[in-house]
Design goal:
This protein is α+β, with helices and mostly antiparallel strands and about 190 residues long. Helices cover about 40% and strands about 25% of the residues. It has 6 helices and 10 strands, in the order ααβαββββαβββββαα.
């Protein structure tokens, strides 16, 4: 259901803003100053391939969501959703910005994620250690911006930032995710 909702919202956005040029400055400004993100997703293709917890969604309570996925053989949780209030998601974006994670933003076209400033800088989902997706307002529509993180130390720093903002109960999921990332072989 989340995928269907995202596709529908993206289609509406692309239709209403088809003639507008997206600039990095405008995208970053909208992300930081103008809106509270609806969803912040943290995804690792590498963890998905190992059948470990690979997707964490920070969502608002009115978002239609999918039930968490479990691996029936290993009895491990593969995806998780954490319901957060708008202020928490805004604080996360502000912290990511102040720590330099929003200095390079990517947009997705089909399966390729392209740097909005440097079109020669692109990746596919299986390359980075994690990809952070932020679904936020842009002009009068909705935009998905992506951050790639390749380095384990940077991933740990990013997860620590989010972890410190969440409540103690919500941190359990991040503890497991951080451990899974640390256990990935180079």
């Amino acid at each position: 259901m989340r995928i269907l909702t995202t596709i529908l919202l993206l289609g509406i956005f692309l239709t209403t803003n088809a003639q507008k040029t997206i600039t990095y400055e405008k995208l970053q400004d909208e992300l930081i100053n103008s809106s509270v993100p609806d969803i912040i997703s943290i995804y690792s293709y590498h963890l998905e391939q190992k059948a470990e917890l690979y997707l964490i969604d920070l969502v608002k309570d009115s978002i239609l969501s999918e039930p968490p996925l479990y691996n029936s053989e290993t009895k491990k949780q593969l995806t998780a959703e954490i319901v957060t209030i708008p202020e928490i998601r805004k604080r996360i974006v502000d912290s990511l910005n102040s720590n330099g994670f929003l200095d390079i933003l990517y947009l997705r076209t089909d399966t390729v994620y392209t740097n909005i400033r440097t079109p020669n800088d692109y990746f596919v989902i299986d390359k980075p250690l994690i990809v952070v997706e932020i679904l936020h307002g842009y002009d009068s529509g909705i935009m998905q911006s992506y951050i790639k993180v390749d380095d384990k130390e940077q991933v740990d720093k990013l997860l620590a930032i989010i972890n410190d903002i969440l409540s103690k109960k919500q941190r359990k999921v991040f503890k497991q995710y951080r451990e899974n990332i640390k256990n990935l072989e180079n």
